[in-house]
Amino acid sequence: MTTIAIIGAGPGLGAAVARRFGREGFSIALISRNQSRLDDLAATLTSEGLTAQGFAANVRDTASLQAALVNATEQLGPIEVLQYSPLPAKEYMRPTLETVADDLVGPIEFSVYGPVTAVRQVLPGMRALKGGTMIFVNGASAVRPRDAVTGTSVAFAAESAYVELLHEAVAPENIHVAQLIIPRGIGGGEPSHEPATIADTIWGLHSERGEFRTYVAPLD
User: Which residues is 160 bridged to in the sheet?
Assistant: First the structure.
């Protein structure tokens, strides 16, 4: 049995993806900052017959993220699928003319250092499996920067560049890297934006291995 590691797991999209992959026989490693909430979510999924466990980590803390992924592999099995989808903090979203250099430290650590750390940790295991999938979930500012969210616009653009380069670099090794863009956020009354629907899309990114970038819906 192999594992999906969901970085940024919560009761919405994270839980929906956990259920979708769990139905396909995956063990589920839930990773976010709050161990208590992770334990509650893992207990709910376990009660539904799935194999799930929570591992607390802060994506801005390289050592804690590495440790969480190591522990997940040791306790649940090799990580075949990585999903990186933590929700950026509100303080990352300042207007351009109010943004100073220090305001970009958090977003860059969150959206660049975190993904690079996660990739470097899971890549050897995927190579041992002779395949795998890495999925990075972003908002629309990853491809269309907005003045009101300067920090995430800058950091998501850097993340997008990194994961597209990664997509090209590891494709010959049967490792698929994909980016999913969710305009306007999750939910909001749009059927295409409901967690279960997005989870089906994410399953397709793993199982069908299409293009590098997929949009849940057209940009405004």
Answer: none
Phi, psi for 179 (deg, rounded to 5):
-120, 130
Range of the domain at 145: 3-215
**Backbone phi and psi for residue 10, each to the nearest 5 degrees, phi listed first:** -150, -170
**Contacts of residue 68, Cβ cutoff 8 Å, sequence gap at least 6:** 29, 31, 55, 56, 57
- CA distances (Å), 125 to each of 63, 137, 188, 189, in order? 18, 22, 37, 39
- pTM, two decimals, is 0.96
* Contact residues for 174 (Cβ-Cβ < 8 A; gap 6+): 130, 131, 132
Structural domain contains residue 138: yes
pLDDT in tens, 130-181: 999 999 999 999 999 999 999 999 999 999 999 999 999 999 999 999 999 9
Residue 61: inside a domain: yes
Q: Give the per-residue pLDDT at 172.
A: 98
